Amino acid sequence: MHIRELQYIEKHHPRSMIELPSENNNVGAPCRIVSRGIDRVKAADMPYERFQELYAKQGKPVIIQGCMDNWKARSRWNISSLDESSLRNARVKCGEDDEGFSVKVKMKYFLQYVQTQQDDSPLYVFESSFDDKPDTKALLDDFQPPVYFRSDLFNYVQQDRRPPYRWFLIGPERSGSSLHTDPLSTNAWNALATGVKRWILYPPGMRKKYVKAPQLRQRGEDKEAITWFTHTLPRIKAKEARKPNGPDLGMIEFLQYPGEVVFVPGGWWHAVLNLYDTTACTQNFCNECDFPRIWRHTRRGRRHMAKRWLDSLNEKRPEIAAVAHRINREDNFEFKFSNKKKNDSSSSSSSSSSSSSSSSSDTEDSDLEKEKKQSAGASNTLRRV
Ligand SMILES: O=C(O)CCC(=O)C(=O)O
Ligand SMILES: [Fe+2]
């Protein structure tokens, strides 16, 4: 085990029951490397242009250190500070009931739950509407998107029409997000204020059945992230290690520590387990270099929004709109809207589809948040706290 991990456990979480993996730990495969680590860079050594060249344009994941140093979140997003703040009475979303309706609890009760829960797969706060509610709006003061991610072409979608795109997270230990790709093939950044997250990534284009490997799930095992990490993943690794021509899933594995921001380029599969109680925020975005790919996904998955987006780009960013028009011409794509149903689904997409748990729905009303949440960890049986 890495010395840094031991120090972290001693300092913060002497009671933790989770065995920490060391980076590139290959359970069941002592002699074969089946996963590799991720680049870690310092913001101070990484000018914006260099980041674009090395990571954004390449679609390469990376951890950036040092871009949260001035965030108030670093001192405010811990149990005692949250519990003493005005946020304690704010209601936050910690899951969905069987009908898909949000289940919300007051922050103060969730914080109690975090400190006392012993659930196999705990509830996970995924709050996206904090920015427009008086009692949670203050969270916006606690973080600033790192400079690398500030350009977001979805800002040209009218704000109240834009699907949820940023989340405040409180993940008790053992909670997590099961393997998924993010909706509409958008990129994401995920900034950790407290705790430790364990990540598995696979490159875009990998087939779901191989990376998620439901066939390796045994009778009686559930679909929770913790079960995938503790049971299925070691089997995937063992299988990888036995492949005669070597591992071919391209697995990346790492731990994220407080103060680190993970960049997850669009299309990358990812699963996350909160090894200790965590607080974090995450945001999805579309930058210029990814516009063609994200445009294809959006015009298929969110036709009405795509049309409004294009109207706005025509006016405010004609050079980007020109790219969309060119791609539409190349793909023989035309917007077709039926008058019969307001929110009907598009079946006339000519774009290629990446196999993705979270972008698999092609319906206009497939809400971005719903898609994202379905793939994240709070789908467990709800216990009201
Ligand atoms: O649980 C996490 O921190 C990962 C969240 C995530 O992947 C997502 O919101 O799409
Ligand atoms: Fe995600």
SSE order, one letter for each helix or strand: HEEHEHHEEHEEEEEHHEEEEHHHH
Mean pLDDT: 85
Spatially, the strands of the biggest sheet line up as 2-3-12-9-14-7-6
Q: What name does the CATH topology of the largest domain carry?
A: Jelly Rolls
Fraction of residues in H or I helices: 25-40%
Proportion of strand residues: 15-25%
Distinct ligands: 2-oxoglutaric acid, fe (ii) ion
Structural class: alpha+beta
Q: Would you report the number of β strands?
A: 14
What would you give as the CATH superfamily of the largest domain? Cupin
So how many helices?
11
**Count of folded domains:** 2
List low-confidence stretches. Answer: 14-20, 22-26, 342-385
Give a brief rundown of this model.
With 385 residues, this protein is of the alpha+beta class. It has helices spanning 3-12, 48-56, 73-76, 79-84, 107-116, 208-211, 225-242, 291-301, 303-316, 318-330, 368-375; strands at residues 35-36, 39-42, 62-65, 91-96, 102-106, 125-127, 166-171, 176-180, 187-194, 197-202, 251-256, 260-264, 269-274, 278-285.
Task: Walk me through what this model shows.
With 385 residues, the chain is of the alpha+beta class. It folds into two domains: 3-288 and 370-375, Cupin (Jelly Rolls, Sandwich); 291-367, no CATH class. 28% of the residues lie in helices and 19% in strands. The protein is built from eleven helices and 14 strands. The protein has helices at 3-12, 48-56, 73-76, 79-84, 107-116, 208-211, 225-242, 291-301, 303-316, 318-330, 368-375; strands at residues 35-36, 39-42, 62-65, 91-96, 102-106, 125-127, 166-171, 176-180, 187-194, 197-202, 251-256, 260-264, 269-274, 278-285. The chain has a seven-stranded mixed sheet. A five-stranded mixed sheet has the order 1-11-10-13-8, with helices on one face. Strands 4-5 form a two-stranded antiparallel sheet. Helix 2 links the parallel strand 2 (39-42) and strand 3. The longest helix has 18 residues, at 225-242. 43% of the residues are buried. Residues 167, 169, 171, 176-177, 182, 188, 190, 197, 270, 272, 280, 282, 372, 376 line the site of 2-oxoglutaric acid.
